[in-house]
Model the fold of this input.
Amino acid sequence: MSENVNKANRTFTDRARDAVQSFGLPRMIIAVFLLVLFIAAPFVGADFWTQVTNLFNRFSWNAVLVLAMVPMVHSGCGLNFGLPLGIISGLLGATLSIEWGFTGLASFVMAVLIATPFALLFGVGYGWLLNKIKGGEMMIATYVGFSSVSFMCMMWLLLPYHKPDMVWGLAGKGLRTTISLEGYYAGVLSRFLQIQIGKLVIPTGALLVFALLAFLMWAFLHTKTGTAMTAVGSNPTFARAAGINIDRTRMLSVVMSTWLAAVGILMYEQGFGFIQLYMAPFNMALPAVSAILIGGASVNKASIANVIIGTILFQGIVTMTPTVMNSMIHMDISEVIRIIVSNGMILYALTRRTEATR
Amino acid sequence: MNAPLLELKNIKKDFFGNQVLTDINLTLNEGEVLGLVGENGAGKSTLMKILFGMNVIRDTGGYGGDVLLNGQKVNFASPFDALAAGIGMVHQEFSLIPGFSATENILLNREPQKKSVVSEVFGQRLNTLDRSAMRKGASDAIEKMGVEIDGEMVINDMPVGHKQFTEIARELSKEQLKLLILDEPTAVLTEREAAALLDSIRGMSSRGIAVIFITHRLQEILNVCDKVVVMRDGEIVKDVAAQETNVTEITRWMVGRSVNAAAASHREPPESDTVMSIRRLWVDMPGETVRDVSLDVRRGEILGIGGLAGQGKLGIPNGVMGLYQAGGTVTFEGKEIPLNAPRKCLDSQLAFVSEDRRGVGLLLDESLEWNIAFPAMQIQDKFLKPLLGGLIKWRDEKAIADVTKRYIDELQIRCTSSRQKAKELSGGNQQKVCLAKAFALEPQFLFVSEPTRGIDVGAKALVLEALKKFNRESGVTIVMISSELEELRQICDRIAIVSGGRIAGILPATDSSEDFGALMVSQVV
Amino acid sequence: MSQNNKKETSAVRKVLGFLGANSVPVMFILICAVCIPISGFSPAYLLNEIVTRMGRNVFLILSLLIPIMAGMGVNFGMTLGAMAGEIALIFVTDWQIWGIPGVVLAMIISIPLSIALGLLCGKILNMAKGREMVTSYIISYFINGVYQLVVLYMMGSIIPIKHSTIRLPRGYGIRNTVSLLSMRQSIDNLLAIRVAGVKIPVLTFLIIALMCLVIVWFRRTKLGQDMRAVGQDMEVARDAGINVERTRIISIVISTVLAGFGMIIYLQNMGNMPTYSAHSQIGMFCIAALLVGGASVDRASIGNVFLGVILFHLMFIVAPSAGGKITGDTMIGEYFRVFVSYGVITVALVMYETKKRRAKASLGEQLRAAQQEGE
Done:
């Protein structure tokens, strides 16, 4: 009780300290590191606005994949290490859309539409599995992702694709490892309403699509069902006592996550300009996981703000370290820094006591 | 003259100002068997924790008074010190490694070892175990106990009674053992096993080992103990030789207290029709098994359900509300309510305030608003704004804030704001939030389970008053489950006593404590 | 009569139970039985390959047994030991110490590295009780980053590397492949004998046999007993006075050190070292092999290791060729075996988790049955 009184009398500095504490030390370090990189950039000859443009671009490629983490975290399924499963649905959508002759913006829209039933199907299966193994989600999710990626490696070879743009030239069958999207949906979103001020280029369309999805996510979490989902993640027993069907709620979150991953990979491809098949989706889960953690999420709490901050910080480091660090110490250690930072962040989150007090 | 084996002098203990033990004095001689009885919360287990040097005592500020062992003052820094001094304790929960044999468990971390060259170099933990010495040590202990169990059997494959005996054998295998504390050891035993245990207690006593025997089965105490110590409200109310007393007397000492305000606010029990009838209910709630309960609840009454811990009183609401696996039939307002489906109960306008506040009752990481509004929102679509012609059910933050503020005022919940997180509140205020959550559902029927457990006196009175008001003003039928008989007698019309997973009897709240006490121990398992 | 029936059904149930409990090895035997004839390899060739691969892999897989005993699940952090072994080999190669002395020296150098990494890993895992596996899996990625930092950037610039043959042309960092020709199969070839055309690396097998004996002995020590106790119930073990945290750390350290040795044995057999990828795959293959042998996340024996190596590598050898014969594309077989490796781990993890949940549920079933009997 006295604690409560104290709380009311808190000064501004106390609140500020609290804010820093809740922001977390590792996040602080990463944010400061990024800030230093930005400040240092002009001194080592990297153009500031080019850097910012890069950041905008990378953000627009990756943000939806990071957003895909949110539903499963909310429903208490933990970090979605099984992201590759959703990515595969997206890849199926992408390749089928091209195979069936769609081009330009239509190929993107069709890719999303075709990917949707796959994502629903995979999501339901995946959700069913995760409901059977509550408590062990993260490890199994990882391996479900891996298994599905390696299974699809066979399928990319075996499925009867014929479009010359996509299959190996000599054999006339089997998809290539990298497929160029030139003429299809490369940049269709980022070029839409693109803003150019000097060297700064803003991929408005892609950002708008992310904003729309993020808004929908935010709105969903404000509905009755969304509220139930958060409660299931916060305390499943409470939710059950309040008459919530836990398995169904978790299943819904997994399906949402999987679908967002499918859309996320399509967004990534439209920015990047290529479809990457075979083992490429393999390690796409870890960057998304660490991005949302860097953004301030924990194993069972995540918000849209976490997604945005996390993607900016993570992608900032990915884009800035090569240019700045290389010029400074003449070594390209950005890749290594990325590995250490992202996995270090995941380790940090895993070793902290789950923030839910039960 | 020889000092007694154990002497407790003026032992006092409080948990954050809440006095749980006052001036406990006790002596125990070698080979003596002491039966310790008392209602739940009488302070038995706290006393034993002090004796056994448990960390929780030190973490909460230690205790007052002296513990003397053979005339020497002792103060154990940890259970290991207590063990070294010759005190052994068998807890209610088994402390056994499931995949190990009885032998391995009996000698856990005290295994006889053989040295080898490797262990000389790398340290003692690389000694090999001396299996034959282990077998011998374990069988010696089993023999000492006098109950036959298979030393090679793995714990997982054992009947529950044998697990209990394995624990006892483990204590007996300790050479220095002088005093053994048995905390409700017969609760899990069959009748035959219990009889065997009593024999083995006599055997220990003849070997000079003193035993403190805690149980609710009073007859056992009379059969085996030299003296009986009765505790009530943190005090020893009676310390008497076992031959000089009987079950009725002990029961009276256990529950009997000056009957004061209890009956003050009593009204004539409403003579009305049955609103809920429970038939042959069984509930599989660990530690609170309900075996065969049939019970009728009258419209508009407050029915109390009392009984000792572990007898199944908590299982009744948890089973009816679908939180634990249950069977039997429950009819509410003439309609049968399906079991094992929380949603169906809530849809029928039943509500439940769980005894497990932190586990079931609250979303600790969410705001009070969420906690209070959540069930009503999910079950009855309250606090929602339909958007797009009802396609989307949007959370109505303002309505939620309003209802929360109303209950904060009504129940005097102390908090900084309605958006404060539930985990930041004190126990009493958390309990009020749980009540508010149930009230917000505007139920016709309310189960309240242990509403005053672990909260301070002021909050207690408030909670009880709120329940009473809810019953009187909204005409809601309330079934309240509590371990505290006096509390039940304060607000209930009738009180059912559960014993051994069955209803032992239903009495008007005005009946004497002794009658209730007799019911409580009538079918104890 | 009815008793007879009961016996029969119980026998059937036993067989089904056995198949259910060992479904992974059974599945693998079936896969191998189908693929071997299709692949068209001669039995002698297969036998030779299996013997070689046993010598190469068994030691590594043995390193997984001790953390399983201590209840910490499959140690994905064994790659830490593998990295320690690789760093040791880089040094030994640079110092140009050849043959057996080189191998032995590498093992000695790997010990302090492995212990340091094992301590770190153990400490972190103690902070993440209940999710050891996913944590150790992320640790392996994390340390992989540190490993790259050290090997790719610090070696040659901060840590002296003399010989340009292993250095990258730019002056620092180690090349993508380090040739271990100087010590290639030095253990395998010593005392090797040929039986009917199959080369048997006797010394390697002796080392493995010795290691198995050590593990058997270890289980009988006080420390081994403590680990089993900690593995089954940490709280009970703690109440009995066992230092739980320390015991867990020791189990990880032992595992890491053994993995370091195992990696050195593995690489001396291969004869060259893919500096940046050797360790990342080895963890997955070892774990898959162990699980194929019928081990589960909480139970593994030496028998599982040997059965697993034989079945897993048999599949590994025949899959590409069998896949090629069936589909006309050898890549299919390659992908198939990767898929099977991951699939096996997935299935084993799922089985472990469902078993854990079933155990909880069956407790309730028992209670209910008892009550109904009472009624």
